[in-house]
Amino acid sequence: MYLIGLTGGIASGKSTVARRLYEHGAVHIDADQLARKVVEPGTPALAAIVEAFGPGVLHGDGSLDRAKLGGIVFGDAAALARLNGIVHPAVRELSGRLIAKAEAEDPEAVVVYDVPLLVEAQVDHPFDLIVVTDAPRRAQVARLVQERGLEPAHAEARVDAQVDPETRKSIADVVIDTGGTLAHTMSQADALWARIRAEQRARG
Fold first, then answer.
1. In degrees rounded to 5, what are phi and psi of residue 111?
2. Residue 160 burial by Cβ neighbours in a 10 Å radius (0-12, 13-18, 19+)
3. Which of 82, 107, 132 is the last residue of a domain?
4. Rounded distance, CA 109 to CA 53, Å?
5. Helix 152-160 crosses helix 137-148 at what angle (to 10 degrees)?
6. How far is the C-alpha of 95 from the C-alpha of 97, rounded, in Å?
7. Which positions does UniProt annotate for ATP binding (predicted)?
């Protein structure tokens, strides 16, 4: 198995690169989806969140009210740390199981683990390669405004709230520059796939 950690700032083209690698045949595991899955009704993580933040963070049907919880932890470092202390270990455990399952089904599998908070959450799976998507701040802001309908000031706040891009790039084995055309991003993803396959063949 070949395990890639894929990360990057908000609206930095991460999903575009993930989708391209998936088209080439990679197994795609999305940490954001796992983070939603581990707090579904009936999960230990959701019970721990209710214990930490009170039943007011639930909708009437027992599911997590993300907006309410977000309002509590936004701007409160201690509350956010408490939440992350519940969610991150649950995601790590589930992702570990999914990665092991992919390897069991195909020992030659290329697994792309798409983790926005790879740096912040200190995700420590044994990655063969860490890939960081990188776009200029103005491109990230423009994408959030155009594609997600955010107000410019809100978009800027979202981008600026994230870990410094240089910190993210410092852990990268490969940086994919997504500030240009879509074709340019795709060609870099294609070159990455060719490199991975070559490394796998070299391993024998």
1. -110, 125
2. exposed
3. 107
4. 40
5. 130
6. 5
7. 11-16
Backbone torsions φ then ψ of 44, nearest 5 degrees: -60, -35
pTM over the 0.85 mark: yes
Q: Compute the distance between CA of residue 50 and CA of residue 68 in angstroms, rounded to an integer.
A: 12
Choose the final residue of a domain: 85, 107, 129. Answer: 107
> Domain limits at 119?
1-26+109-204
- Structural domains of the chain, count: 2
Rounded Cα distance between 149 and 165, Å, is 23
Three-state DSSP class for residue 128: coil
The pLDDT tens digits along the chain (204 residues) read 999 999 998 899 999 999 999 999 999 999 999 999 999 999 999 999 999 999 999 999 999 999 899 889 988 889 999 999 999 999 999 999 999 999 999 999 999 999 987 877 667 788 999 999 999 999 999 999 998 898 999 889 888 888 888 888 888 999 999 999 999 999 999 999 999 999 999 987
Residue matched to tokens 């490394």: 199
Distances (CA, A) of 13 to 99, 110, 185: 23, 20, 8
Could you tell me which residues are annotated as the binding site? Answer: 11-16
- Strands 174-177 and 110-114, sheet pairing: unpaired
CA distance 142 to 168: 21
By CB atoms closer than 10 A (0-12, 13-18, 19+), residue 122 is exposed
